[in-house]
Input
Amino acid sequence: MKWPVLILSILTLAAPAAAQEQMGDPSFHPVVARPAYAGEGPLIQLDAAHGSVQTIGGRYAGFAALVQADGYRIRAGEQKLDQPGALDGVDVLVISNAVRPEDGGSPDAFTAAEIAALDAWVRAGGSLLLAADHAPYGSANETLGQALGVGMGKGYAFRFEDGRITSQMNFSSEAGTLGDHPILRGRDASEAVSRVRSFTGQSLSGPPGSTVLMALRPDDHEAANVQVLGQINNRVEGDPSTRDAVLAELARPALPAQGLAFEHGRGRVVVLGEAGMLTAQVVKFPADSGREDVVFGLQTPGHDDQQFALNLLHWLSRLEGLR
Output
């Protein structure tokens, strides 16, 4: 099967798992020119109780390094969300790519009791960053999203650029695909975000009153899974004139967004349909494989994802001075 190099998730999944290693990029050492907090800043808790591989010591090591450079404290959340004390002292809860229980007893990553506890915590003034990217993460987080008023596409969002499929989405102020929000304006012009890139995810819809931070285009689509995405790519590549028919048969229109921000009761919520943009990762291949390592996330050039990550946490932690 021939895969276009821009489909990052396919690129990393195409090789046998034993022949590659996906990990946090150890060369990423972020420096924040103007840290938001000095001393003991707000506490970020990264959920570690729902099977995610996005851990502080693993694929989210770059995120952890970035937020610490900005003055935050960060810890892993090992308890289920409905357990006593699970969210005590937490200023911002981060959930990234939570997965279904291994016993297969539920299609959801979270129990009804956990969702009720989290909803109540946010409504009382808590702040939540929820990242759930391409299948199967949308399905595992769908019920939690519904409690927040968020719809999830649950597949692989993609578009055609220069006649080729890509699942890496670029959003820019120039193209009108970045919204108007303090997260994108920052504290001053030096923190303004003008270009954001995502690295393969799903699409989203938001509740009334939400702000679309990252707007998908009207001609963007979503495939149910990576196999269907490959079928679309191969059939259109073989005969570009069939594109509309293939899309009608195998894809569906994407939901309007890949990033959202909104108030929920007295609390604040940011939902991203892509988790890799908050990481600094590398996919390493054996030296004799003939394949170059793949680097993606915060440390790659051509976008403002690092500032975007800082700004969204500034908004969630209620940093003063955002415009």
In short: The CA atoms of residues 298 and 306 lie 6 Å apart. The two ends are 48 Å apart (CA to CA). The first helix runs from residue 8 to 13.
